[in-house]
Amino acid sequence: MIMGEPSINFWMTHLVLSLLIVSFHSQSRIEAVPTYTDHSCPNTSTFTINTPYQSNLNHLLAYLSSNATRNIEFYNATASASTTGPVDDTVYGLYLCRGDMSPDVCRACVAGATKDLIVRCPVEKVAVGWYEECMLRYSNRYINKIK
User: Fold this and answer.
1) Which parts of the sequence belong to the Gnk2-homologous domain (predicted)?
2) What does the pLDDT look like over 6-48, one tens digit per residue?
3) DSSP assignment, residue 146?
């Protein structure tokens, strides 16, 4: 062995450590992906595409998703085109993340659920999506608090 050159053991150790770091980093990303469990869109009421209700729904889902960036586990919101508009166009929604989830996992779950529900329930005014990490719900009716 020539002095000053790294040995094969050095390179093998370096390679193994690099692979462990990459593996750990990849697993962290995998854990942040929400795990779909179930959904419900009871089809009790539907809306027409390109109406104020759909616009309000899109705004509500974007708003809920953007508020999942905060360090909070529960958030609710309401979207309505105007205070004088028809009540039928108002959309109520909320999300709830598991208390043992990190803010990053909560954010990923809510973001995934907002995209997933509009695919699974494309014209329903009422929908709920459950993931192992969170729950997302929206409705055309006020969502009462559990007493």
Assistant:
1) 35-143
2) 556 655 554 444 544 444 443 344 445 578 999 999 988 999 9
3) P
Number of domains in the chain: 1
CATH of residue 60's domain is 3.30.430.20
Q: Is the pTM of this model over 0.85?
A: no
Q: What are phi and psi of 95, to 5 degrees?
A: -135, 155
Secondary element (H or E) of residue 75:
strand 74-79
110 token code pair: 């809510």
| CA–CA gap between residue 47 and residue 123 (Å, rounded) | 5
Q: Domain range holding 73?
A: 35-139
For the chain, which residues score pLDDT lower than 50? 1, 14-17, 19-31, 147
